[in-house]
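Lab notebook, design round three. We kept the backbone fixed and only want residue identities now. Task for the bench partner: fill in a sequence for the structure below.
Input structure tokens:
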């Protein structure tokens, strides 16, 4: 069974690879990554900086933001373009 499969962009998938856990940058404790099947996005993350950057609210959120580099320049630029088109934030 495929338990480590999730839809993501190539950039995020490249950073994630086969990892399911990583170290929380705040506590340095090992934490599991955000799982779309188990975790609620709004409990783990929030939009900041005019909705262009993702902020981790919990160990899961911080760990995921750090490992997947969710605020890398290419992702932020894409969000800015999507926002101008009225397509961001997605919810």
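Proposed sequence:
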């Amino acid at each position: 069974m495929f338990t480590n499969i999730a839809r993501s962009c190539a950039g995020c998938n490249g950073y994630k690879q086969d990892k399911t856990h990583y170290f929380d940058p705040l506590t340095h404790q090992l934490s599991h990554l955000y799982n779309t099947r188990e975790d609620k996005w709004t409990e783990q993350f929030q939009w900041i900086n005019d909705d262009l950057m993702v902020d981790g609210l919990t160990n899961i959120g911080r760990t995921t933001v750090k490992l997947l580099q969710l605020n890398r320049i290419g992702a932020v630029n894409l969000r800015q373009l999507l926002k101008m088109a009225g397509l961001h934030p997605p919810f």
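Keep this in mind before ordering anything: The mean pLDDT is 92.
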